[in-house]
Structure formats: structure tokens, C-alpha cells
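task queued by scheduler; priority normal; single chain, no ligands, no partner chains; default sampling; output format set to C-alpha cells
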Amino acid sequence: MTTSSGTTLAVDAGTSLIKAVVFDEFGTERLVIRRKTSLSSPHAGWAEQDMTEVRDSVLECIAEAVGQTDRTIDRIAITAQGDGAWMVAHDGQPARPAVLWNDARAVDIVDGWTRDGLLEQAFRVNGSLGNLGLPHAILAWFLENDPAAIAGIRDVVTCGSWLFESLTGCRGLHPSDASAPWLDVETGSYAPSLFKLFGLEGIRALIPPVLCEDELTAPLLPGVSRITGLPDGIPVTLAPYDVVSTGAGGGSVSPGSAFCILGTTLCTGVVTRSAVTSGAPTGLTLLSPGPLIVRAFPTLAGTEVVRWVGDLLGLTDAAEVTQLAGGSAPGARGVRVLPYLSEAGERMPFLDPDARGAMLGITTRTSRADIARATLEGLAHTIRDCVVASGAEVEELVLSGGGSASALWCQVIADVTGISTVRVEGTQIGAKGAMLHALVAAGAYSGLAEAAAATVTRGALHVPDPALRTFFDDRHDDFLLTRAALAERWATWRPDETDGG
């Protein structure tokens, strides 16, 4: 440590919940302020959010945190949901509601890109498997279906960049946000060939510059200071988007380390020094300032599946689902769940907008506990699928997100994947990762590894049960074979007007 780290107020702007977290100089959570935000779906499969509501909720969270803490805030850090298209007009205000990462309106466009081999060509440049929640697919949809909606746009950004501009006036994208679908991973710069590949040359000017390392911290605007109660000019750091920040907050900051976020998406990530642009296209390659790269596999299956099963079983929350699952045995007495419940299908480690879920092996003796257990195991199989697709030799997965509060689920993941899992202390791991980036930017630590070593505390370790190794190896093979068989019929399961779709 080179300077006093002081107190950091870190904002984590998720899809449905915004949090402002006050961390002391030791990285301990001292205060958490939360605000729920609303989502809208004007049409089936669409996912949108009011940009003004998100910004105002962030400012309210900051102001409330400042009012409740007895500590002097030394800096602000921001991390947020990634992907999607947040459109800003020339006056700096929202041009329309944000289109989110889980929006499915571009399904036909992505299908066409897949058939024509465009996604594979793009992967050879940016190391990312494009999907329908990324800005290139969303913008292509608007150009084809509603060009007037983007006629007055100045910038197309992400949630984090929108908040950073709102607080500091600085325009631009964090490298992690720009990586997919726009960057050449070899140069870290925008790739003109990618805009041409997807027929988006005409809107290249809507994508703002990538911010370099010394541009990722800027002073708070005076107007925002008055709203929040913070002093003018306090430094604000834009951290990587939530996937990368959460990995860092759990201590995954060195090559070979791996993590999995048990949240709205199950995002498995591996830290590496080099990008992968060969082989079968899969994963996202996310750049940040410095030598490290995160290979991320954010699925569309996640804790929403657990909540859905909870509703189906008459339970009140996901915690009750994981508790109920303890009443079944490994293997869930033959019940299998393919957890592809998103209307947008699945995007990692394979891309199929038509992917749909299934529950198999049910008999009249199947219990509610069996269904709960099979759901957790099905999601664990998707994690194993992503680890295998990464090609990395993973010896340990650091778990975070709401699902990691369940010791049973952590053990299920260890048993299904054959990889030890570990939780870290604290509840706001994404915000903590943002804090680490802000501390490094402030010069309090020489790098993320030093910052993580000083502030991240490991928690419970879950080791795979060796007696279950062969069983879950066989069960995973069955999971993949069943998925392959059902995938041949997925396209015929699309809802139509007669289904109310």
C-alpha cells in the first residue's frame, strides 16, 4: 500500500436492483443502500428499462448512503449491468428506454448471422460469440424495423457508461463494455471490419471512444455534488462491467483463477493473459486496462430459473427452493432439468435463441424436493458446460451472487463439476470489485492483486465428493445428449398467436 485507502462508496447498478455500498479502508462493508428498478416488456421477448429512473435511483442511493454514514467518502466507484443498448440523445438525455442484455427482439437477425457464418467470422477478430442482447444485434434490428427511433441519437452506450457520464460529464465506453462486439482483441481498438461485417458502417459514429486507463477516473460534477451531498470534484472511477468487477471482488485477479456468479445469469469466468480467437466460437473476451483478460460465459439461465421453480412449487423465494432441495438425494431420484427458460433462449456456451427448458424423469413418486434438487443440478451442469468450453484447467471456482448464500448449492456445483468451490466474505462482491479498481486508480495499491490480497477474505470451501465423481460424469454426458436430442425440435416450440405469444 502506498497511500491511505480511505472510504469508498461503490455503486453496483444491476438489472433490477441498484446498490450503493460504503466500504472502509479494509474493504469491509459498512453500509448498503438498495433501490429496486422497474423493467418493461412492451412486446413478448422485449426487455427495456427507463434510463432516467436508473440514473435517479443511483443518485438517490448515493445521497442516502452519504446521509447515513459517519465516514468521509473519499471516492466513488461504478459498476453496472453490461451489454444492451443505452441510447443517448444530443442533449445528453435518454433518447428512448434502454434495450437490455436479455432482450430477444433480434432473434431472427442473429439466426441469419449464424446461418451466414458472420458470427464465426466476428469471433476470429474479437474472440466473442455475439448474441441477440449485444448492441450490434439490437441496432441492426432498429435499422431494419424502426430506423426513426435512432435518428436523433448521439451515442449508444451501456449502463455503466451512461452513469459515468451522468456523474462526471465524460463520454466513452469502458474497454470491458466495448469488447463485445466492437473491439479487435489483438489491438484493443475498434475493428472497422466488424461494423462492415454486420452492415453497421452507417452508424459507426454512434459508438463513442474507448476510454483509456487515465480517463476512467474523473471528478464529480458540481450539480451532482449538490444532489448527493458529496464535495465537488470527488473522484469517480468507472470500473469494468459487473461480470469482470464481480470476479475481481472475489479475488479472481491472476491468470488461471476462475469464478462463477450465481445471479440473474450464471456467469463463469476465467482470467487469462491471452485472447482466444480459434476453435469453435464461444464465450466473451473482455478487455480491461492492464495485461489481464476475462473469458466470460454469461448464460441466460440463472437464479430466475430457481425463482420460477419456487413459484411453481408454491414457495416464497429462492432460499426456500435451495432449502427444499436438501430433502432429495444427489441425482434428484432420476429427475432431470434443462434450465433454458429465458425467452431469448441461450447464449453460452452455445448460442440458440430457440433453446427451451425441459423437466424429465418425473413419475408419480417424484417429490417437490426432487424437482428443487434437479433444478440446482441442471444449473450446475450449465456451469460445468461453460468451464469445459473455456478450455482452462480450473482447480477452484470462487462463487458469488445471491445463490452462493446456499451451502447446499455450492456443494452441488462442486459435486457436479468436480471442482472445489469457495465463497468469499461479504455480500456485495460486484461493488467490492469496483472498489478495488478505484483503489488502484487512486494509487492506494500497486495493482489488483495487491488490493485483493489486502481486502478479500475467503470463506467456506466445498470439496467434491469423490464417491459421486463417476455418477455425475455419467449424468453430465446424459445432460448433453438429452439437450442435443431436444435441440432438433426447439425451433418448432416458438410461441405463436394461438399460444398467446
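post-processing summary
- The first helix runs from residue 51 to 68.
- The chain has a mean pLDDT of 93.
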